[in-house]
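Hello,

I think I submitted the nicotinamide-adenine-dinucleotide job twice by accident. Can you confirm which output corresponds to this input? Input:
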Amino acid sequence: MSSSVKDKSIGIGVIGTGFMGKAHSIAYSASASVFGTGLRPRLEIVCDLSPERASQRATDLGFSRYSDTWRDVVEDDQVHLVSICTPNDTHAEIAIAALAAGKHVWCEKPMSTTLADSTAMANAAASSAGKTIVGYNYTKNPAVTHARRLIDDGVIGRVSGFFCRYDVDNEADGNRPWSWRMSRAQSGTGSNGDVLSHVISVAHFLTNSSISRVVGDYTIVHKERADSQATGQTKVVDNDDMVAALIHFENGVKGHIGASRVTWGRKCGLRWELHGTEGTIIYDQERLNELKLFTRQDNPATDGFRTILTGPLHEPYAAFLPNGGHSLGYMDVKICELHDLLSAIEAKSQVWPSFSDGLKIERVMDAVDRSAQTNKWVDV
Ligand SMILES: NC(=O)c1ccc[n+]([C@@H]2O[C@H](COP(=O)([O-])OP(=O)(O)OC[C@H]3O[C@@H](n4cnc5c(N)ncnc54)[C@H](O)[C@@H]3O)[C@@H](O)[C@H]2O)c1
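Support: Only one job matched these inputs. Its output is below.
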């Protein structure tokens, strides 16, 4: 006997097909196989700036149609969920149009280049039935969600401090040419919006609170970069290569955060520590299957930090692999993020971080930006 499966498909449109467009598309292709149940993504239409690139990427990524105009995606009747994987200055217009057309939206971080645009996006989401999520994937790793459970269970007592740096060497070489990421007009802030935004998402997720007060500082290390479009010419870098801030949270926790895009040797150097009255948890994204834990029950003379290696006991690791030690990677975490969104669409439930939660993150970035200009503490 043969029978057909129940149709739980959801039509997908992806806009922008670089690093993140590929990551989203891989997640859409894999999520039903990994999680077994739930909505099944159907790759409808992909968009990039030229028909040639869009056509090639449709073939590569498994979409049935392509376009060089993002409006074709948000207005497409067969599309229910739109991924926005384009440069930051395009997010707001696309997201607002997609929500107005009744679509769900998975938007890459940061939400936009200005607080005004991010606020407009959150307002559009509030008046739409569409679900929204911002791509803060470093909160979706089973190691990190396990850390949150340990905190909620009181394993490290009352959290007293949050300390996090995220350093990368993407732009460490001063000979690398200028890109849209180094332009306030196209990208907004530099390492603040691009890198520190992830740190703030982790801060909010782990403390279950929001940063309320900051004092920030910026450095532009490479003030001019070669213009790849004009031999011998340079272009000005007008946003931050490095950012640092002291922070206060609404719940009384204090800490400090920092980010850099010009740190040689750091590849995905997102490292955080949570200090509590009963213990400490440490994490390093370059070893994303491990957590380090020390509690007051440990013998300071004989015990050091113990390593918790993530495995099937740390949900949703078991959806991917039956045994520990095989390890998840970045793309797997992107699948976890998508699963959260698809589950919320199916169950009509909340998902974190929605555009409303993302706006709280943007407000912190904006406060750091204002503080770095004025050298003063700023309320978020
Ligand atoms: N969550 C993460 O870990 C993470 C990592 C990297 C980038 N990002 C974010 O993802 C977004 C994209 O970054 P990326 O690294 O993929 O960039 P990318 O340069 O690799 O890709 C961007 C793509 O968008 C296309 N594009 C530009 N304007 C477009 C338009 N108007 N319509 C259709 N296509 C357009 C480009 O041709 C390119 O293919 C950014 O917001 C970035 O901050 C998030």
